[in-house]
Amino acid sequence: MDASGYDGASFIPEFYDHVVPYASRQDVAFYVEAACQSGRPVLELGCGTRRVLVPTARAGIEIVGLDASEGMLEACRRRLRAEPLDVQRRATVQRGDMRDFELGRAFRVVTIPFRPFQHLVTVPEQLACLSAVRRHLERDGRLVFDIFNPSIHRLAKPADGDETDEEPPFTLPDGRAVIRRHRFLERDLIKQVNTSELVYYVTHPDGRQERLVHRLQMRCIFRFEAEHLLARAGFTVEHVYADFSRAPYGSQYPGELIFVARLVAPVQEFGR
Questions:
Q1: Fewer CB within 10 Å, N or C, the chain?
Q2: CA 265, 267, 272: angle at the middle one, nearest 5?
Q3: pLDDT reported for residue 8
Q4: How far is the CA of 125 from the CAs of 100, 108, 229, in angstroms?
Q5: Spacing of C-alpha 31 from chain mean position
């Protein structure tokens, strides 16, 4: 099952770059700086439509993007074709499953921006991803990724299925007006998995209206749970941040969970 739901919602690649919280998210500079500090080619898992990938290439760093959704990758390719040739040469994209991929090369940094790791809803899936990352890192290479920090107060509330209207509307280039709402369907507190829907109300220029639904699942991962996963996979945590300005974890609640982890264990210890 594809917990991200992207393949079942073909409209998402068209809408993605216009969703206001995505377009205004403050993580791009953080990931571009991580790439520039390495000075080496970077691998981005879950590259989507190019939100982090293209700014990284513009900054002069070679980057390879991997994504499981062909629709998202096609949108990424279209946007790359609009960039100058030198930017296009520094960025390549490939379809692949973040749990099991083989690119035949190693990178100094692997990034997983904006929470795709949380679409891996079981521990075997999470460890499979970290194992694939490990195979693609140079010795002492870094993994940089973010997940949301679960709010205990929010988890204590039942998922009532009501729609919330938390976001400003946006308009697509062809004039369609879109309002997006959230709907929590289930909180499985045993498996730590939230099932939710993103509901898009679309008004066409001629007045016609439609309702489009993107259903997805995300695993809640707590700070020390993530650290144990990383340790099992041969990483040591160097930094845990609460936001993309590098505020220390615990300085705000719930904040983000942003990890910088270094590969420390030789890969042969894990059965390669």
A1: N
A2: 150
A3: 78
A4: 9, 23, 11
A5: 12
Domain ranges of the chain: 12-150+220-270, 152-219
Residue 44 binned pLDDT confidence (cut-offs 50, 70, 90):
very high
152-219 belongs to CATH 2.20.25: yes
CB count, 10 Å around CB of 86?
10
How many other C-beta atoms lie within 10 A of the C-beta of residue 110?
25
Alpha helical stretches, state H, the chain: 12-15, 20-23, 28-38, 53-58, 70-81, 85-90, 123-135, 152-155, 223-232
pTM for this predicted structure: 0.95
pLDDT for 266 beyond 70: no
Instruction: Tell me yes or no: is domain 12-150+220-270 CATH 1.10.860.10.
Output: no
Q: Which amino acid is at 139?
A: R
The 10 Å CB-count burial string (b at 16+, else e) for 34-71 is: bbeebeebbbbbbbbbbbbbbbbbeeebebbbbbbbeb
The answer to whether 76 and 53 are in contact (CB under 8 A) is yes
Residues 6+ apart with CB under 8 A from 254: 148, 149, 150, 151, 154
